[in-house]
Write a structure and sequence with these properties.
Strand content: 5-15%
CATH superfamily of the largest domain: Hypothetical protein af1432
Shape: elongated
Number of strands: 12
Number of helices: 20
CATH class of the largest domain: Mainly Alpha
Strand order of the largest sheet: 1-10-11-12-8-9
């Protein structure tokens, strides 16, 4: 999400400019670890003179830590332990005439360290001619010891540290951007706000490498249109505040900034906090909050800003996906309701069957995606009744054999209507339409399937559909009591219905009865 002009304020995301952050606050974001400089020489005097010359030296408000090594083997051991050496002041001739040059090859090719700056300094330039060495080896400066005055040492060290710092900034940016690409790819797979929010914070902490910092706390809040915004996921002191509203869980300044950015969205860095508010066109809002981030480098703050705006896009995509799913669900329910209205059954029948299918599938142990698919598809279980004459559908008395054969065709008719689509929901609906009147004992219709030859969707829909039919009044019968329904399911376990599903249904029958109360006639 880019910063936009003021020409269209409804779409604008407002950023607090960098200049609005105080110098003290900006400085607090920079970590002040010492620059590590490795002095490599077999003469102790060289080490001592270098230490005296660089005493009190600092670059970019950071001092230096001087390390010493006296041989090639000591350098290799030092590099195994110290992974953030910025500069190596390297002698050429030590135990061998080309020890220093061999070390350059080891550092660049074996260790694949291209960021550490290397300055060769030699007292015997004849052993390593400058032009030849500069051409052949990946070094950053070459000096003979007699010419390496205090001023030239200062100049060379400063230039190398500046270059090293720039390279590390580029490296951190590259790593951070790669991490953002990887993490957002993972996060965007989540199509529920709760899983999305949880993944946002997990990958945010990884991105900023804050998992070892006990003072870091973060929260991701989500608000639905015209509803309050609440914590969907949290870490640190917000981990136990999931579900709490903004005003009851967050610092006052966070509430104030949310109100400030509520209409158009916006973000800001404070001395120790990041606050980002994002809006979707559908009216959903989200708030990303991070505290304890005073030590974030400027690079990390930019990465956080990029990450947050990527997340805002993902949040917007989920919002749009939900809108599509809700529209699709509404169309399916409407189609199911139209069919049921023809047979003078209540429109809520299809909704109750959908909820009962979802509940039973959940108890059976199906994954969330599958249970939700069944919930969306099952309202179309009787869509084939569109081809049954109303006189038969609404006949108050017992059907004749001929009439019953006609009505039995609705299963195949529904299947033929639905099976032509390649959409997973329609394919699921086609299975339910075809098989929800099959019986475990093989005496059902239209195919006479038995046992596990009946798809699990058909077995679940059979229990849900019959339960709703028995527990509600129809043109040909009165509603049954729950006790009578329970007795019926016990008697039909292993006959009409899958016995395992009947057991689950009876264990949780109160929850199925609750569905009737939520969606009454």
């Amino acid at each position: 999400m880019d910063v936009k002009s003021n020409e269209n304020p409804d779409d604008e995301l407002v950023f607090v400019e960098e200049d609005s952050i105080s110098e003290d606050a900006a400085a607090a974001f920079e970590k002040k670890a010492l620059w590590k400089i490795l002095i490599v020489d077999d003469e102790e005097d060289v080490h001592e003179i270098t230490r005296i010359t660089l005493k009190g030296y600092s670059f970019d408000n950071r001092g230096v830590q001087l390390l010493s090594a006296y041989s090639g083997d000591e350098v290799k051991e030092m590099l195994k332990k110290e992974h953030d050496i910025a500069l190596i002041l390297l002698d050429v001739v030590m135990e061998k005439d080309d020890t220093g040059l061999d070390l350059v090859e080891h550092i660049r090719k074996d260790l694949k360290n291209s960021t550490v700056r290397i300055v060769l300094r030699t007292g015997q330039p004849g052993k390593a001619p400058e032009q030849e060495v500069i051409t052949k080896y990946d070094i950053n400066d070459y000096k003979t010891k007699p010419e390496f005055t205090a001023q030239k040492l200062y100049t060379s060290v400063t230039a190398c540290l500046r270059a090293y710092n720039n390279l590390k900034t580029i490296e951190r940016n590259n790593q951070g951007l790669q991490s953002i690409i990887r993490s957002t790819a993972i996060i965007f797979k989540n199509q529920s706000f709760s899983r999305f929010a949880s993944q946002v914070l997990i990958h945010l902490i990884e991105l900023l490498r804050l998992d070892s910092n006990a003072d870091i706390s973060s929260a991701y809040l989500v608000g639905m249109p015209k509803n309050s915004i609440f914590i969907m996921s949290g870490t640190g002191r917000y981990a136990d505040k999931i579900g709490m509203e903004l005003g009851n869980s967050m610092p006052r300044n966070v509430v104030d900034y949310y109100l400030k950015f509520q209409k158009n969205g916006g973000e800001t860095f404070l001395a120790d906090e990041y606050i980002g508010v994002f809006k979707t066109r559908e009216g959903f809002s989200s708030l990303l909050y991070l505290s304890g981030c005073a030590d974030l480098r400027r690079t990390e703050r930019h990465l956080l800003r990029i990450y947050a705006n990527n997340i805002a896009i993902g949040f917007d995509n989920i919002s749009l996906a939900r809108e599509i799913i809700n529209t699709q669900k509404e169309v399916i329910l409407t189609l199911g309701e139209i069919v049921e209205t023809r047979s003078q059954e209540t429109a809520n029948h299809v909704t109750r069957v959908a909820e009962a299918c979802y509940l039973l599938a959940n108890k059976y142990g199906m994954d969330e995606n599958t249970t939700e698919m069944l919930r969306l598809a099952s309202p179309m279980h009787d869509v084939g009744k569109i081809g049954v004459p109303e006189a038969i559908l609404n006949k108050p008395g017992r059907l004749t054999d001929v009439e019953f054969e006609i009505i039995k065709h609705h299963a195949e008719t529904g299947y033929e209507i639905l099976r032509k689509s390649n959409r997973p929901i329609m394919q699921t609906a086609a299975i339910v339409a075809l098989q929800h009147h099959e019986r475990w004992d093989g005496m059902g219709y239209p195919q006479g399937l038995s046992g596990e030859n009946i798809h699990i969707f058909g077995r679940i829909a059979a229990i849900a559909d019959v339960f709703d039919a028995l527990s509600h009044k129809r043109c040909y019968k009165e509603a049954w009591s729950i006790e009578k329904i329970i007795d019926y399911y016990k008697s039909e376990s292993g006959n009409h219905f899958d016995a395992n599903l009947v057991t689950l249904f009876l264990m949780h029958v109160d929850e199925f009865v609750s569905i009737n109360k939520i969606f009454p006639d």
